[in-house]
């Protein structure tokens, strides 16, 4: 098994000669697994950990692992290019398809934290509240015709609404 040089610190100098060098390439397989002959170099491990999960005997690519790379800001082409650089036999079509399929759906949803929601049956009333100058501290934004999101907690939002004359 190959070891990165920093992993053999403290090993007697003569013994280091018997430690094979760390692997810098990977066998990317059509079943969405990856295998390394020996131990991976630090760089190879980082490339694989970016878009695959460690499993017994190697790595496995999944929708979740590829999404993790995209969430970290890596473009699909970048993920595939980095894998191609270290692949012994190229990137399998199944892995290319997985990366492109996850990328196609990636970013279709967004999650926004809100302090609370203000709901009213009258959309005109909510539009008025959203424009009210004394309520700008609430950071109000519409979620729909009858719902506003406030950045502040419910008790603060209610107190400011009452101060502005809304009940």
Features:
14% strand, elongated, 167 residues, 3-stranded antiparallel beta sheet, 2 domains, alpha+beta
Question: Can you describe this structure?
Answer:
One of its GO terms (molecular function) is helicase activity. Residues 29-141 form the Helicase XPB/Ssl2 N-terminal domain. Keywords: ATP-binding, Helicase, Hydrolase, Nucleotide-binding. It comes from Saccharothrix algeriensis. This is Helicase-associated domain-containing protein. A hairpin with a 4-residue loop joins strand 1 and strand 2 (33-35). The model has no long low-confidence stretch (mean pLDDT 92). Helix 3 (63-71) packs across helix 5 (93-105). The strands form two sheets. A four-stranded antiparallel beta sheet has the order 1-2-4-3. A three-stranded antiparallel beta sheet has the order 5-7-6, covered by helices on one side. It folds into two domains: 5-105, no CATH class; 116-163. By secondary structure, it is of the alpha+beta class. 40% of the residues lie in helices and 14% in strands. It is built from seven helices and seven strands, in the order H-E-E-H-E-E-H-H-H-E-H-E-E-H. The termini are far apart. The longest helix is centred in the middle third of the chain and has 13 residues, at 93-105.
């Amino acid at each position: 098994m190959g070891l990165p040089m920093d992993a053999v610190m403290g090993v007697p100098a003569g013994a280091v000669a018997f430690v094979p060098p760390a692997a810098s390439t990977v066998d990317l397989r059509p079943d969405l697994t990856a295998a390394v002959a020996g131990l991976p170099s630090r760089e190879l491990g980082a490339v694989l950990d970016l878009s695959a999960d460690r499993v017994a005997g190697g790595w496995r690519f999944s929708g979740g692992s590829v999404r993790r790379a995209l969430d970290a800001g890596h473009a699909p082409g970048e993920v595939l290019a980095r894998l191609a650089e270290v692949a012994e036999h190229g990137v399998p079509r199944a892995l290319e398809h997985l990366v492109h399929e996850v990328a196609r759906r990636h970013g279709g949803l967004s999650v926004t934290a809100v302090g609370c929601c203000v709901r009213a049956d009258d959309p005109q009333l909510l539009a008025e509240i959203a424009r009210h100058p004394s309520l700008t501290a609430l950071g109000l934004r519409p979620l729909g015709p009858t719902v506003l999101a406030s950045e502040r907690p419910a008790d603060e939002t209610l107190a400011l609404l009452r101060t502005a004359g809304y009940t």
